[in-house]
Amino acid sequence: MKKGQVSWITGASSGIGEAVAQLLAAEQHKLILSARRRDELERVKSLCIQAGAKAEDVYVLVLDMTGFDAMEQKVQEAHGQFGRIDFLFNNAGISQRSLCVDSELHTYRKLFEVDVFGQIALTKLVLPVMLEQGSGHLSVTASVAGKIGVPYRTGYCAAKHAMMGFFDALRAEVARENIYVSTVTPGFIRTNISNKALNGDGSEFGKMDQDIQTGMDVHRAARKIVKGWKKGKAEIPVGKGVEMHALWIKRFFPKLLQKIVARKAAPV
């Protein structure tokens, strides 16, 4: 990552996206901020200007990750604003808090529309821009849940596993094109992700998980993520809790991990 490059962040209205935007603003990146809520994006834009960005270098682009018909026009608008797209951070997404038996199919579909197909659609449209430029960096917020299945998150885990697979494969495809691909693998980070998570019927969970509440500070997480990008890491694990140990436990002691996650009886 270099100062002055054009960086597009989805899910920029809160959480990790908001924190990363402020860090990149301080490094004089030209920013494109996307999410569904314009008022929240304008708030983040103000924070970016306070962090050191010029007002004309922060562009608010409202984007619905399920608005596939409008997505090509949105990419054209983003590209036209600064004439290039150097970095795309696919950070938009939603989570889940419900047992499989209680989860309706339309809830699973919504998870995949936002967390999988939305990311793929946007990446596919931005990739030709980067190929034409001869450079670029694509990144996605995956999750520890993209490597480990846990109760009450069957749809979320499935979606994040899909994203890990897609971006790992894409990395291999563009390895000779001067395009970097990185997956961010957060554990529990203090954001509002659990509040916005879906119940089995598709309604909002509306509560803060204890694990999330005691998780890593989002600004500390953002610093670790940006540091990982600068080092060119293919995968960037970020978190401070026991969930981060699960990554190596699964590799060396898979049966032990199965017993640990099976004891997690309810989302807390």
TrEMBL record:
InterPro entries given in the database record: NAD(P)-bd_dom_sf, Sc_DH/Rdtase_CS, SDR_fam
Family (UniProt): Belongs to the short-chain dehydrogenases/reductases (SDR) family.
Protein name: SDR family oxidoreductase
GO terms, molecular function: oxidoreductase activity
Presence of keyword Metal-binding: no
A GO cellular component annotation in the UniProt record: membrane
Keywords per UniProt: Oxidoreductase
Pfam families according to UniProt: adh_short
